[in-house]
Amino acid sequence: MAIPPVLASKDARDELPRALKRFREEGIAAAPLIFGAHRKAEAVIIPFELYAELLPIIEDMEIAALVRQRAARGPATPLSEVAGGLGLDPGDYR
Question: Helix, strand or coil for residue 73?
Answer without folding.
Answer: coil
